[in-house]
Amino acid sequence: MSTFKITKSFVDHVSLPEKGQAFYRDSVLKGFALRVTQGGSRAFILEKRIHKKLKRITLGRYPEITVEMARKEALKYLGEIATGEDPIANRQRDAVSQLTLHDAYQDYKRVKCNLNPNTYQQYEMYFKGELKDWMNKRLSDINKDMVLAKHNDILSRKSPSYANVCLRVVSAIFKFAKFNYEDSNGHSLFPVNPIERLGHMKAWAKEPRRQNIINDSQLPLLYATIQGVKHETISDKKTVFMDYCVFLLLTGLRKNEAATLKWEYVNFDERTFHIVDTKNKDPLTLPMSDIVYAILKERHAERMNDYVFYTKKSGYLKHTDLLLKELVDASKVQFSCHDLRRTFITVAESLDISMYAIKKLVNHRGGNDVTQGYVITTHERLRAPMQKITDYFKNKANIKLEHYGADKAH
To answer: Membrane-crossing residues (predicted)?
Structure first.
């Protein structure tokens, strides 16, 4: 292997390769070399075996650093290697040790760019709220005692669910850091997730499972209020929201799945609608019951954009908290959008509909149920159960086809 005495004059006049890059190794300091590219870029490197593996370390680009500066830097690395150190791993650890929670979150977003935008909106809410004072803290400085103190502090002012989710968001960043930041030997630079202290000490706050549903005695009052608001208001958004609430009750969809439904996924000929973006990422095709068909036909006649439940400003129905509060106040029925889904599932179970069918209707996976994996349920097999549930609500809530134009449903 040819070697050269690397000097300033040598670097200035070195021949450029016709393609790719070329290496010129120094005859004075073993391992010291000059890397030259076809485009004329010059950089000093050090080649040395570290823990039996040949490593190439970039010392700096010329002329940002001189030959003399590069040689001194190479000698520092060689000194560390001689004492058994891994200078590459050391510098990686030094760089990553300065990484803040904010820095790691930015990397998290770049890598996990396929997550639902609503997930990031939730993360931002916590990072700009209760976790704001942690954003500029280094990951390496967030310890287990701080985690317990933070969790207790949030619990003193917020709900158990809020406190738990706050720390689970931080835990997600630490899990990401564990596998994303590694040294040159593949060892994690953040092997410990301090949030795990809450689990080890059984310190997660107990979250009472929500059990609220709309009972049979409340259904007529709620539906009558919905119809009253719909026929008295001059607000398009209120009208859309009223239909949206009935649609949620009769389909059991999650609120965002229904709100983002587009007309291109509604098939009136087949009487089906298709949800592409679901919580568990499994696309869902459902049959329309007679009332659902009528609602969609009426919405279609008044369509304004690509979304079934449209708004003029935001495209699809969102930021509905105020509309929901007005409906709750007017009807005196306390409920959330998710309570409509819970009511749908409860009614379905009360009608002795197959649990497999219910899971398909609400897009729940079977977990460890091996048998369910062999049961193929098409949307046609779900049509009768879907209509049976709608018939129940028609009877209990006094929902009628003519409320949506009975002629459109045939």
So the answer is: none
What is the mean pLDDT of each successive set of 10 residues along the chain, which is 410 residues long? 89 92 93 93 91 85 94 90 78 76 92 80 91 93 94 93 94 93 79 93 82 92 95 90 96 93 95 87 90 96 93 87 94 93 94 90 68 56 94 96 66
- State the DSSP H helix or E strand holding residue 3, giving kind and residue range, or none if neither: strand 3-4
Complete DSSP assignment for 376-395: ---HHHHHHHHHHHHHHHHH
Q: Give the whole-angstrom CA distance, residue 35 versus residue 19.
A: 13
Question: What domains does the chain contain, in order, with CATH numbers?
Answer: 3-85 (3.30.160.390), 101-200 (1.10.150), 219-409 (1.10.443.10)
CA separation (Å) from 314 to 33, 230, 266?
59, 21, 21
Closest CA to 130 of 172, 158, 102, 106: 158
- Exposure class string for 157-187: b at 16+ Cβ within 10 A, else e: ebeeebbbbbbebbbbbbebbeebbbbbeee
User: What pLDDT, on the 0 to 100 scale, is given for residue 376?
Assistant: 44
Q: pTM here? A: 0.60
Rounded-to-integer distance, Cα 181 and Cα 108, Å: 11
* Measured distance between the N- and C-terminal CA atoms of the chain, rounded to whole angstroms: 86
Q: Are 377 and 357 in contact (CB under 8 A)?
A: yes
| The two three-digit tokens of residue 314, written as one number | 């935001």
DSSP state letter for 186: S
**DSSP-derived secondary structure for 210-251:** P-----TTTHHHHHHHHHHHHHH---HHHHHHHHHHHHHHHH
pLDDT, tens only, 210-228: 678 999 999 999 999 999 9
Sheet strand arrangement including 284-287:
266-267, 272-275, 284-287
